[in-house]
């Protein structure tokens, strides 16, 4: 018999009988699961086609998850889903199959706990999820933005800077062991302390190679200034450009959080040859949720690469109240981080999202040959007018820029 959580309330029926979990959608983990429970199989298949698209002309296949990973998911209560993106068979190239893992999680301890205990609590919490990724054959694993700490950048309190560490610091050393054990590239977004340049702080993604080596880093390009939420209290725009990291499993890039709102940021990673772009984020429902399913998917289409979008989950409450420039009274939490991590492909297909309120691991197997196949199909690189855009941008950044506006000469002419 279906549980109350699996039932949809009939039209006109009261909803308070459904057990509502914090951040769920009418008691369901995600919109996809709500629709699956409320629609007939045939109708749900058609709705999924419209919402998620088709990959190489068909719905995504689910991947069989190994029993050890399933056990870890059940024992540690995290959402675990796995899907496969296909590409057409080619005569001149073999398939280039890569398995990617995305982790979303809430914090482990209250923000009032000692900072060192908070950090160790997250390490302990993520250990079984990382092990599930490793035992599932994940080749590239990405964690969420500032995964080692609460998202304290909304508070503007400098005590949280204690979480900052150099790129070869404690969190990197923690992950290097897993990288070596599972032959896995790991992307670790942290608050970086640049000890060689006056201990300046950066929002940085450290890319750890599958041998445990540090391949390099990328610093967040775009800093949000929304109301009085301004992350430049802690760090400024990055200075690493748009690097693409050539790994054992493909060419990858990291577009950190707010950079997803800037189409030229996505474009630059594509121009540098990225095949997979990871977007580790920390964003709340009222601020951005309607945009979340759109921007990364559009970037995957426009730039002919895969995009892996990760968002943290949960509501983090801080000791001291703060405001967010939205006209509301001061408060002690930034809002609900709605998870919903997912993967988009260059052919416009995408996976269902992870839970909106629970920790999770999303595994996606992809054939990187699909990137070139979509470039050949749509010809976006060949039909783009980069010289025209470069000319406009070159003029736009000049102080004497004049917009190219042709006014109707009769627009302000008075009637006779």
TrEMBL record:
**InterPro entries per record:** Aliph_Amidase/BUP, C-N_Hydrolase, C-N_Hydrolase_sf
As recorded in UniProt, its EC number(s) are: 3.5.1.6
Please indicate which superkingdom the organism of origin belongs to: Eukaryota
The alphabetized UniProt keywords are: Hydrolase
Q: Does the keyword Hydrolase apply?
A: yes
Pathway where it operates? Amino-acid biosynthesis; beta-alanine biosynthesis
Reactions the enzyme catalyzes: 3-(carbamoylamino)propanoate + H2O + 2 H(+) = beta-alanine + NH4(+) + CO2; 3-(carbamoylamino)-2-methylpropanoate + H2O + 2 H(+) = (R)-3-amino-2-methylpropanoate + NH4(+) + CO2
- Domain named CN hydrolase is located at 98-368
Could you give a GO molecular-function term held by this entry? beta-ureidopropionase activity
State the similarity comment: Belongs to the carbon-nitrogen hydrolase superfamily. BUP family.
Q: What is this protein called?
A: Beta-ureidopropionase
The organism of origin for this protein: Castilleja foliolosa
Species lineage: Eukaryota, Viridiplantae, Streptophyta, Embryophyta, Tracheophyta
Q: Which gene encodes it?
A: PYD3_2
